[in-house]
Amino acid sequence: TAKQSRQGIALYAAERDPHRTDRLGLLSDLRQAIADDVLELHYQPKISLADGSLLGVEGLVRWRHPSRGFVPPDMFIPLAEQSDVMPLLTQRVVSVALAQLAAWNERGLQVPIAVNVSPIDLTGHRLTDLLARGLEDYGIAAGLLQLEITERVVAEETAELQEVLAELNRMGIPLSIDDFGTGYSSLLRLKTLPVGELKIDRTFVSKVCESRVDVGIVRAIIDLAHALDLPAIAEGVETVQQQEVLRSLGCDGVQGWLVARPMPAEQITDWILQRRV
Ligand code: C2E
Ligand code: CA
Ligand code: CA
Ligand code: CA
């Protein structure tokens, strides 16, 4: 009844209050962490299914909170996105990735790093300016820094966004569409976007051995990627069985716990060096 639902709302509002304080606390702690430069990236490899070669790594932000321990990105990225903190966070993430690329360069390693950017990073030219300056300062080839943008972004049809993506493309920065299959991008839109890779969302990959429907969806995404001349990379691959189904569907690359968990810089460097011999 209406009365019950009003009570529900009142209860909900009351419960949310401490929650809200908590979120504000977390956000100001995050701001501090960025100022103190304590955010880290962990790196997870992407592997070619054709020959097992390393395609690159994805950098995933990690925040060790002084009292809470590691806070998962799914908990603080949405908070950052709803505030002015997101551009600061992205700036940190980009410079950590560039410094890592420079360190690898010095050791003769040329492994592309993909960083995740949020939809709001793609408004205005902050990001393109930041990247142009960063690549120059660190002396990094544009092709080594990849950006993962979610399909949510692609669905948006604004002229500004189109211009930013075109500019990134002109700069030679490869774009990857993340979480593919969860958004609503039109085929026409996909065809005209300057992207270099589709990443199949983990929700489909995780059920690829159990559900005929999910196999069908994954097959359709792979075929779509190929029709667009793009490689399809499956994320969240946890088992050999999943990997074999993906291989049989013509998937080009995999990323997930089966190959390796995300690792701190030193560990991924060892991992890369060991694979090369
Ligand atoms: P995402 O971009 O889809 O990243 C993949 C997530 O799946 C990562 O979670 C990764 O640790 C996890 N993962 C990888 N392999 C497996 C697997 O085999 N099984 C399972 N169950 N999970 C796997 P993580 O690091 O917690 O990041 C969550 C999300 O937070 C990311 O999803 C991304 O959307 C966002 N994120 C992470 N780092 C950044 C960042 O630097 N900037 C922005 N804007 N977003 C970020
Ligand atoms: Ca990603
Ligand atoms: Ca993803
Ligand atoms: Ca995801």
UniProtKB/TrEMBL annotation:
Coiled coil spans: none
Domain named EAL: residues: 23-276
Domain of life: Bacteria
Name assigned to this protein: EAL domain-containing protein
Species this protein is from: Jatrophihabitans telluris
Native organism taxonomy: Bacteria, Bacillati, Actinomycetota, Actinomycetes, Jatrophihabitantales
